[in-house]
Amino acid sequence: xxxxxxxxxxxxxxxxxxxxxxxxxxxxxxxxxxxxxxxxxxxxxxxxxxxxxxxxxxxxxxxxxxxxxxxxxxxxxxxxxxxxxxxxxxxxxxxxxxxxxxxxxxxxxxxxxxxxxxxxxxxxxxxxxxxxxxxxxxxxxxxxxxxxxxxxxxxxxxx
Length: 159
Fold this sequence. Notes:
single chain; two-stranded parallel ribbon; alpha/beta; 23% strand; four-stranded parallel β-sheet
C-alpha cells in the first residue's frame, strides 16, 4: 500500500545536512566546496527513516537539478508518475531547480512550503534574511510554475 501511494504521487525529498534524498535519490558532490556531500560521508547517505522500500530505485545525483544527468525522468515515466510533491532544502537551490525542471518536463508539481528550508544569503554586501529568501522563491514558484501549499493541504493528494 505504501509503495502504491509513493507511485501515485511521487514525493521528492531534498534534505540538506541530514539526508539529501529524493526519496529515491542521494546527492554527492565530490568537492571540498560542499564537504557535507562528499561521497561516503554521513550527510550524503540516505537516512534510515526514508530508506527505499525493497524494489524502489535509488538515484545518485551530482547536480542541483535532480533531473540533470540522472535517470529520474525515465524512472518516473516508467512508473506513470504525473504529480510531484516537492519538499526539502534548499528552497533557493534544489527546490527551485527541480520544480522548474519538472514542470518543463510536463509534471504537475506541488511544493510544500512548510516542508522546505533555506538559509540567509548574501549578495553584494547585503544579507537577505532566511524568511525573505524562502518567501521570494516560494512566491516565484507559485506565480509561474506550480501550486505551493502547506503539507497538511498537500496530503490530500496521496490519500
